[in-house]
Amino acid sequence: MNTQQSSRPPARRARQCRLRAALRAVLLAPAAVMMSAATASGISGDVVKIGILNDQSGTYADLAGPGSVEAARMAIEEMGGTAAGKKIELIAGNHQNKADVGAGIARTWFDREGVDAIADFSNSAVGFAVQALAGERGKVTLIAAASPDFTGKACTATSAQWVYTSYTNGHGLAQVLTAQGYKSWFLLTVDYAFGHAFAADIRRAVEAGGGKVAGEVRHPLNTADMSSFLLQAQASGASIIALANAGSDMTTAIKQAAEFGITPKQALAAPAVFLTDIHGMGLKAAQGLQFVTAFYWNRTPETRAWSMKFFERHGAMPTMTQAGVYSAVLHYLRAVDAAGTDDGKAVMAKMRELPVRDVFAGEGRLRADGQMVHDMYLVRAKAPQDSKEPWDYYEILETIPGDKIFKPLSASECPLVRQ
Predict the structure, then answer these.
(1) How many domains, in total, are found in the chain?
(2) Biggest alpha carbon–alpha carbon distance for the chain
(3) Which of 63, 182, 288, 296 could form a disulfide with 274 if both were Cys (CB 3.0 to 4.6 A apart)?
(4) What is the per-residue pLDDT across 239-248, written as a single tens digit (0 to 9) for each?
(5) 188 with 332, same domain?
(6) What confidence score (pLDDT) does residue 25 get?
(7) Is the bond preceding residue 318 a cis peptide, omega within 30 degrees?
(8) pLDDT digit string (tens) for 278-323?
(9) Which superkingdom (predicted)?
């Protein structure tokens, strides 16, 4: 046998080898395709696993924290506890507003615990760290932090930004107030990505409106004494002081500005205001403050009904972040259910295809750059005597259509859009 084979001409043997290889490829290809399709269409680990990663105990705990976990739980219950016929599991982690801590938790969740998607973050620095990790692993991130770079330079095929941006709440608010005659601004900025993004958008809007920024000072996160920073703002003579911060930093600045007699001589603008901030300050301190928000619990009968359910479970009315986490998780699960898979890219494609319909978004849509576009609301904090019930803090002045307040897709720096 071997003698016969060796006696064949070399060219004939080579042709036979090529034919056998081609035949094997044809026979094996359908099986490989079927295996690939089964993997893409299935649910990894036989469970859909979602993580809520945010500040559970620090400056952003009230506006997100355990309330975001409860909101995500409400979304899961609305799905009946399953997606694509598989059980949904929810876990939570505290990133302590530290990017390395958040990245470490996310890495463990992705690589060892089979987490398919992570939502919230609230802190932009943590969000960027996890967004990059998730993109490398094909996992989904649902971001409730403000930097526009999430859907700009840092965008990925599996990330979405859901609630608001520094452009909607910083640029938009500054544009309105500059047009009203506030031409001289001073920026009091928290010193990390969140504050830097807000300050940059405010600066651009002010200068575009013919105003000027008289100065800027940056303070560390969780600053208890704002006196030195506020005195610099006061000395600038600016007509308005913009607080490019949030949470306890913002409320501390507002209270201390009143104590030092800075207001009402100089007005305050606070682009990142949450319901819990007003609750903590009280309407006496907050009355008259104007800002942009993505959600108000008492806006419609539907938002009120959902928010009352949330209140029964959490003991406080939902902030825009908490309502946004509910919306993001619900839409993600609907997409998993429709796609029949938890594969990140497949789910995100389905999320872009489906309209976003819920008490938070109304009628929203997810763009190619990962931005979820929805209506926003210009509101004013009520005077104490105008509040009719607990948590009745906002007067809605204007509904701003999503296409008007979010940065246009044509201006996006997202590489996925520019390809």
Answers:
(1) 2
(2) 106
(3) 63
(4) 999 999 987 8
(5) no
(6) 44
(7) no
(8) 999 899 888 878 899 999 999 999 999 999 999 999 999 999 999 9
(9) Bacteria
